[in-house]
Recover the amino acids of this structure.
């Protein structure tokens, strides 16, 4: 039979265990938490967990239990946390009641919670503690009153501040500012909010205090409230702070500014007001018009800068005239502003200038600016301009098109291609063509290749190379066939260019043609490049390494120079196979190629874990004995040290090899026990 | 919602997405960017020197930005090192509740500057009372981030604060309000908002190269996001000169001392940590939001994944984009984002040589794209440098308080939805859940006195 006291103890233990998991979604219920808090022998951790849980699930039923914990220095913070979020008037009452008897940090915390609940009934309590010598409590009381910000709270703060010796402590200044801001937030009148700020000495106010003063004074329903506020405050930093408030939308800017007012303002407030001046508004329109035409140079420049940043279309005509005057210093800046104008009103404007430009210089300027703005809808107009009679205009149009087109514009570009002949024009158009074929959707390559292929026979010889290079940028089997056809052209310039393009082809689709070129040795000047391209692509073929090595070695007879051989050795180094190792071993005897052969062997040794270790060891030992660069020898030593020790059978193979070429391979060191038995060969 | 000056017909859009040099119209016209435009006006003397707003009496800004470091454990010293590498930074003081850390950081700073006068403080309030500091870097435990930032800004300092920047939505709001009221420059340590690989991803998305966005993936730490409160066995408190336990706890709920907390075992404890979503999501949700700009301030529906991990939680935005929180799947490194549109996808994470993209053509104009970003924003592709530049210019840095609070609010909201295991609708304007009073009770927690936000 169970002991009569055991059952409740067991229940409590289960409850405590459950509270350890307090933060899981299924956490303890309010009743379970309260049971723990009511128990006299609950562990501290369980009490903490229960109080923490109640911060999200307490109801009115929890208030009496929580109230008991409010007075405890250890638990008061968690207990008031559970009450702070509880939307019930009794929660405030419990906090107030606890505060009546509390002191020190506990009292400060309780006052803070009452302030967060904006409990108007706490005003007398907080007021009593405003003058306490405990700075933490006094600050909490002041802040609480600032948050409540009703009439009694503000009166209490004002009264204490008025009697306080100067300078006021920062917490009191802050509380008064909070009260003013909070009062505005609660939609009290600005006059009411201003009462909170009355005790403040403007001359010694910190900037954020001055900001509060300006916020309150600028909150009155007056057209020029912020200007009046700055004037009334008459503080050296008032303009600066007002500019900050205006820029952040904390205070309203006047809706009707006149040039005289703007001219009378100091910076930075003037800039701020011009930037945020509400629009559309005829008055703002007139203001900017006036400032940009009649103001003194400094103010005029400021107005232009702000008008540009606001994207105000009428300023475009001013900028255009400045830009056209290329002799003036303002021209470059005007061009920059037109190019960076923040909306497409500038594009429309420049298109209009393009269509109505009286001179070639204007056309070039408009084309250049539209190009810098990369405005795609201007592409049609720019294409029209590529047929202009003036070659400078045509070149400007091609340059501008570069940032406007993608592959969808290729057809139109190629239509113009038949007219191209001048080298400078071809050079400008070439970049546009490359931009168009580069900006393509993934599945449009065949269509682009077909377009380029169709255009090829129709264009002048001088305009054909860019088409071939464009095909190279696209790559793939269809493009390579067209270039290969061009490589058979009767025109030597086209033939050589096509051959070079094949050699530099970005993928291995061109390998058969390059092999053919290399075998034929034509064009002769490109043969070494062709051979190396063959070696490079062959070494990257997805074939078994031995087969790749075989294909590489088949080219050995075509090697015409030591450089060719070096390229072959490098390719063999990327082909980890027994065949490659054996050939490299042979080359180690060549004094001019020994370093390259050893490097290739090291690459194979790095890459090939599947190769027979004895083959590798023999080759590396042979390399070690060769007249190598010292850095390579060191690498070979390290590589040899990493290889597994040769078994007896391998030693036999080694011996056989030594017998075959005794001069090349030094004897391996014998095992210590057998050293005396090994005869020198 | 776009704000218009009315000067512009903003309905007209370019036909092609590839306009990297084009100025974003909505940004160019927003009131929020007015301050930036103000600051970049040539010759405009409005730029506020750090001490013009923060401290009285001084006239001209010094050549160096004088800084203090608060919280100088392993992470804190790493961040401090980044600052010391900047030529215009002078660290004058360090602060930590642990004596060993204070000594180590002082030695590091003195060695760097070739001096011996770096001051050490145990109490953050003493460091903040120094009038000669322009800015502070805060790398305390998560529980302290918001409070230390609020106190520092009230003391007139600009703040670079490690993430996660708040433990609750209310703490984040306090940081935003303080930065606004005291006109302080605040940057949260979400450094991937300034790293080239990531910035390229945001720019690819912003300039339409990925087409219309439909899904974004935010990387979260593998592990639980719903945490327990785990008390270690009580141990005798060391002398405050060695470890000030009361200050270590700060605003977090009281518990008895145990050395393991101080050694770093506070991670994963609900009193001190924001879980798997907060740990990396503090970065990656901000990263995804950067790619989604402009993000409408409209309600977000949060559909939590089953279980305590949060892995698979979905956040559905009013513009049709779904953000999925994932602990694995799209990345080879940590803290990544992956952005998908109907014309392409891109993403980045730690350790990438270049951003991952669905098609290589997206990388072809990366230099130009990044140059256009810098031209448009005037921001350095270096988070610390961006902060220091803003300390001088008074422009908002890339991860300013509102940016931080917007993403951290989603971190907290997602955590709450996972905790309650039911869908919730988060209203970012009201900073409340719609029709969920029980969920709204998780949005704040009482700070422990005397470590109060005030």
């Amino acid at each position: 039979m169970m002991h009569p006291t055991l059952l409740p103890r067991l229940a409590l233990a289960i409850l405590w265990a459950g509270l350890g998991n307090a933060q899981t979604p299924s956490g303890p219920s309010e009743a379970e938490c309260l049971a723990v808090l009511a128990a006299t022998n609950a562990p501290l951790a369980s009490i903490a967990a229960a109080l923490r849980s109640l911060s999200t699930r307490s109801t009115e039923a929890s208030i009496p239990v929580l109230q008991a914990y409010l007075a405890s220095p250890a638990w008061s913070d968690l207990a008031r946390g559970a009450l702070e979020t509880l939307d019930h008037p009794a929660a405030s009452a419990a906090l107030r009641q606890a505060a009546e008897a509390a002191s020190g940090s506990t009292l400060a915390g309780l006052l803070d919670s009452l302030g967060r609940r904006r409990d108007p009934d706490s005003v007398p309590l907080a007021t009593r503690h405003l003058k306490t010598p405990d700075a933490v409590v006094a600050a909490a009381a002041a802040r609480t009153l600032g948050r409540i910000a009703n009439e009694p709270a503000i009166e209490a703060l004002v009264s204490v501040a008025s009697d306080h010796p100067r300078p006021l402590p920062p917490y009191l200044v802050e509380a008064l500012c909070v009260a003013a801001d909070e009062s505005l937030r609660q939609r009290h009148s600005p006059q009411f909010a201003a009462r909170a700020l009355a005790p403040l000495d403007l001359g010694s106010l910190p900037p954020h205090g001055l900001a509060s003063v300006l916020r309150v004074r600028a909150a009155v329903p007056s057209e020029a409230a912020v200007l009046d506020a700055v004037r009334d405050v008459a503080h050296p930093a008032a303009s600066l702070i007002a500019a900050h408030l205006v820029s952040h939308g904390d205070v309203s800017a006047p809706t009707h500014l006149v040039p005289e007012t703007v001219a009378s303002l100091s910076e930075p407030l003037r800039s701020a007001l011009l930037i945020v001046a509400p629009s559309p508004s005829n008055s703002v329109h007139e203001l900017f018009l006036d400032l940009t035409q009649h103001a003194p140079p400094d103010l005029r420049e400021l107005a232009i800068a702000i008008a540009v940043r606001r994207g105000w279309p009428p300023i475009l005509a001013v900028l255009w005239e400045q830009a056209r005057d290329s002799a003036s210093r303002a021209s470059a800046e005007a061009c920059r502003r037109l190019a960076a104008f923040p909306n497409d009103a500038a594009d429309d404007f420049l298109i209009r200038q393009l269509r109505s430009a009286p001179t070639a210089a204007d056309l070039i300027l408009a084309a250049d600016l539209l190009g810098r703005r990369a405005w795609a809808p201007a592409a049609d107009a720019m294409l029209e301009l590529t047929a202009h009679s003036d070659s400078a205009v045509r070149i400007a149009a091609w340059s501008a098109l570069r940032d406007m087109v993608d592959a969808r514009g290729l057809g139109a570009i190629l239509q113009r291609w038949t007219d191209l002949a001048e080298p400078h024009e071809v050079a400008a158009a070439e970049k546009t063509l490359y931009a168009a074929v580069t900006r393509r959707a993934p599945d449009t390559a065949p269509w682009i290749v077909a377009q380029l292929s169709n255009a090829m026979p129709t264009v002048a010889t001088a305009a054909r190379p860019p088409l071939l290079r464009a095909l190279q940028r696209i790559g793939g089997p269809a493009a390579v066939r067209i270039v290969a056809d061009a490589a058979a052209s009767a025109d030597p310039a086209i033939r050589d260019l096509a051959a070079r393009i094949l050699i530099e082809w970005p993928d291995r689709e061109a390998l058969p043609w390059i092999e053919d070129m290399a075998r034929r040795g034509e064009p002769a000047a490109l043969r070494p490049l062709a051979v190396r391209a063959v070696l490079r692509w062959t070494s990257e073929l997805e074939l078994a390494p031995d087969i790749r090595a075989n294909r590489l070695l088949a080219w050995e007879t075509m090697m015409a120079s030591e450089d060719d051989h070096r390229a072959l050795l490098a390719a063999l180094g990327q082909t980890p196979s027994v065949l490659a190792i054996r050939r490299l071993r042979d080359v180690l005897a060549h004094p001019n190629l020994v370093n390259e052969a050893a490097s290739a062997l090291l690459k194979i040794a790095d890459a090939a874990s599947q190769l027979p270790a004895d083959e590798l060891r023999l080759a590396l030992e042979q390399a070690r004995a060769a007249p190598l660069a010292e850095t390579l020898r060191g690498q070979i030593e390290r590589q040899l040290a990493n290889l597994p020790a040769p078994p007896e059978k391998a030693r036999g193979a080694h011996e056989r090899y030594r017998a075959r070429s005794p001069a090349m391979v030094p004897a391996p060191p014998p095992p210590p026990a057998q050293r005396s038995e090994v005869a020198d060969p | 919602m776009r704000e218009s000056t009315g000067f512009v017909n903003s309905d007209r859009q370019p036909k092609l997405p590839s306009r990297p040099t084009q100025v974003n119209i909505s940004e160019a016209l927003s009131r929020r960017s007015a301050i930036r435009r103000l600051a970049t006006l040539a010759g405009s003397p409005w730029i506020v020197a750090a001490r013009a707003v923060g401290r009285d009496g001084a006239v001209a800004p010094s050549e160096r930005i004088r800084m203090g470091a608060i919280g100088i454990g392993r992470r804190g010293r790493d961040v401090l090192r980044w600052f010391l590498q900047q030529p215009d930074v002078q660290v004058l003081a360090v602060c930590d509740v642990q004596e060993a850390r204070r000594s180590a950081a002082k030695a590091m700073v003195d060695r760097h500057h070739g001096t011996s006068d770096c001051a050490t403080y145990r109490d953050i309030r003493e460091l903040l009372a120094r009038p000669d500091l322009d800015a502070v870097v805060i790398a305390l435990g998560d529980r302290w981030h918001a409070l230390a930032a609020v106190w520092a800004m009230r003391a007139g300092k600009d703040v670079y604060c490690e993430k996660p920047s708040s433990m609750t939505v209310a703490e984040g709001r306090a940081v935003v309000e303080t930065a606004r009221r005291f006109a302080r420059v605040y940057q949260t340590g979400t450094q991937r908002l300034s790293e080239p690989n990531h910035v390229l991803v945001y720019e690819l998305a912003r300039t339409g190269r990925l087409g219309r966005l439909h899904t974004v993936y935010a990387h979260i730490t593998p592990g639980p996001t719903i945490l327990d409160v785990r008390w270690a066995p009580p141990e005798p408190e060391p002398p405050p000169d060695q470890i000030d336990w009361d200050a270590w706890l700060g605003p977090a709920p009281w518990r008895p001392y145990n050395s393991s907390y101080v050694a770093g075992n506070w991670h994963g404890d609900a009193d001190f940590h924001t879980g798997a979503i907060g740990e990396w999501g503090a970065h990656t949700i901000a990263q995804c939001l950067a790619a989604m700009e402009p993000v409408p301030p409209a309600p977000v529906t949060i559909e939590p994944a089953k279980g305590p991990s949060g892995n698979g939680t979905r956040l559905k935005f009013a513009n049709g984009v779904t953000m999925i929180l994932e602990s694995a799947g799209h990345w080879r490194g940590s803290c990544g984002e992956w952005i998908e549109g109907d014309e392409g996808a891109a993403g980045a994470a730690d350790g990438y040589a270049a951003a991952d993209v669905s098609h290589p053509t997206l990388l072809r104009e990366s230099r130009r794209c990044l140059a256009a970003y810098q031209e448009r924003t005037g921001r350095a592709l270096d988070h610390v440098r961006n902060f220091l530049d803003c300390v001088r210019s008074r422009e908002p840095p890339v991860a300013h308080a509102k940016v931080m609070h917007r993403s951290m609010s989603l971190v907290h909201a997602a955590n709450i939805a996972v905790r309650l295991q039911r869908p919730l609708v988060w209203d970012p304007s009201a900073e409340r859940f719609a029709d969920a009073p029980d969920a709204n009770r998780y949005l704040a927690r009482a700070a422990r006195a005397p470590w109060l936000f005030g």
Remarks:
- The radius of gyration of chain B is 22 Å.
